[in-house]
Every structure is written in structure tokens, then in C-alpha cells.
Amino acid sequence: MTMAIPTPTITQNAPIHTWYKVGGRADALAKPETIEQLAQVLDENETVRVLGEGANLLVADDGVDGVVVSLKNGIFGETQVDPDSHLLVVGAGVDLRRLITLTSNEGLAGLEVLGGIPATVGGAVRMNAGGTFGQIAQAVAHVFVMGPDGRDRLLEAWEIDFGYRHSGLEDEIITRVAFSLTPDDPKAVRDRLRACMDHKGKTQPMGKQSAGCTFKNPLLTSGVKGIGDAGTRVSAGKLIDRAGCKGLGVGGAEVSEHHANFFVTHKGASAADVIALMDEVEGRVYGTFGVRLEREVVVWERSR
After folding, report:
1. Which of 7, 120, 252, 260 could bond 241 through an S-S bridge, CB–CB 3.0 to 4.6 Å?
2. How many CB atoms are closer than 10 A to CB 188?
3. What is the DSSP secondary structure assignment for residue 246, as one 8-state letter?
């Protein structure tokens, strides 16, 4: 006799937390706790979006249709060591910053270079999160993903198209990630983590309502005087700054004076303000340098 799969918790007209603290709600929010429940959500809904930490997400003011899935409960929030491979297997909904603190204190090196990045593990792998000191792909052994068919399968790291802010997993849902970490002196790992955090504190507008870097650092197709040569990846923040956009505002959204690739929101801001500001900055950078910026912030809107 086959036992029925318990229905996952689904909330109607649910708020979506983002770091911008603006934007609309989800028509429905599902919180599956098992692989089977996640497969059920996919089977019963045509439009499914996965919500991580909401740190690089902007939701349109009128919200989103379909079902938003939060993977923070049950198996998706667990962390364990595989007894055979000794790899650290982490649920997609585990908070990356807490995982970094845990592994650093245990003297496991490899993730401390991502210190200060707000993300779930699944979200960080999906975008290959990283910064000055490294990227998450360097520590990934394999990833469990679920496709539209509801089948959970394993992808080895070498099968994944990791690149700059890219994994090629846009059409898959990451369910768990196995990390290969290196034993090291806990103090040495914590010191590297502290150095990473200190760097972020000096260069980024910490504590503001922001979604981190708004745009990816572009790869120049032709040289830009004072910026870089053709074929080099350059700072989007420098381009935005040199285009005269620091401090530029639309409604309650503003380009940070501290770091031009960070957009911050103030009281009364709307998602439309942020989108309009991104459009304006993109236009000014292209008009000044002929460089098209690609958004790192993901924008959710209703299906047309």
C-alpha cells in the first residue's frame, strides 16, 4: 500500500522578504519539507519560483503569480556529513553565513572566502556567488537538482557550467549541495573570514537596504580608456561612478555614494523606483562608454 504524500504548507497572498524591503506579495507561497513534496508542487503548478534569502531579488510592486517556493524546512534546512564520502551535504535553504561560521569554527576551510555574502546555499550555488577572495564553485563537489519532471538527480561539479556569476542551473531547482572542504587550523580559517568581512565593511554600504551588487562586472568587447582593455572584466561600479551616477536617485531609490554598484532604498521607495533607476544607470553607462550592463539583481514580475 502506497502512503499518501502530506501536502506541503501553502499560504495565499504571502509577503516576500527581500533586502530592498519593497515590492509586492506572492499569490501563493509553498514550504515543502521533502523531495516528494517539492515534486508535488512542480507537478501541480505551471509557474514556480524559488525564494532564497531574497538578497539579490526585487519583486514588482504588484507581486507575482504562480507559486513561490521556500526551501528552508525539512530536508532543505539540514546539514550533515556523508558517512561514505565525508563530504558536507547541505540543504539548499541553509543560510550561507551561518554555514560559514559553523565550518570556520570546526576548522574546515573553503567557504570562509564568501564571508558576508547573504544567501541560502542553493541561491549562492545557482549564481556562483563570490567576490574578491573566491567563489563558491571552488568548494562544490556535487549538486542535487530537480528538473521540471520532478526527478531529483546528482550533478558532479565538472558537469556544471560554472563561470562568473553563472552555473547554468537556471532551469533546475537546487535541493542539496555537497561541499569538499579542507581541514585547517580553526584560528587560521577564522582569520581569513575576518579579513574578508573587514574588506566588505570598508568597501560596501553595509547596514543599508540594498541587494548587494546591482550589475555584473562586464567583460569588455572593446577597450575603454581609463577603465580596461578589450577582453578584460572590469568593475561595474567604476563604470557607474565614471558615468556620473553616484548619488543619482529615482523616488526612494538611490545609487550608493559608498559603492556605485549598490543601490539603496529609503522610506517610501517602491520596486518601480529601483527598476527605473536601473534603467537610467544602464542608459547612462551605455551612452558614456558603449558598455551594456547586465543585471545581477533578479527581478520578479507577473507573467504576461
Report:
1. 260
2. 13
3. T
Q: Which is the catalytic residue, given 33, 36, 296, 301?
A: 296
Is 165 in the active site?
Answer: yes
**259: exposed, middle or buried (Cβ count in 10 Å: 0-12, 13-18, 19+):** buried
Task: Give the pLDDT confidence score for residue 100 in this predicted structure.
Answer: 96
CA distances from 63 to 124, 176, 277 (A): 23, 28, 19
The catalytic residue among 49, 106, 165, 284 is: 165
Q: Which domains does the chain have, with CATH numbers?
A: 9-70 (3.30.43.10), 78-189 (3.30.465.10), 209-300 (3.90.78.10)
CA distance 265 to 298: 16
Q: Is 159 annotated as catalytic? A: no
Q: Among 213, 245, 254, 282, which one carries the catalytic annotation?
A: 213
Cα 19 to Cα 15, 16, 56, 67, 300, distances in angstroms: 13, 10, 7, 20, 14
Identify the pLDDT of residue 293.
Answer: 97
Contact 276, 251 (CB under 8 A): yes
Q: What is the pLDDT of residue 1?
A: 40
Indicate if the pLDDT at residue 156 is higher than 70.
yes
Over range 203-220, report the average pLDDT: 82
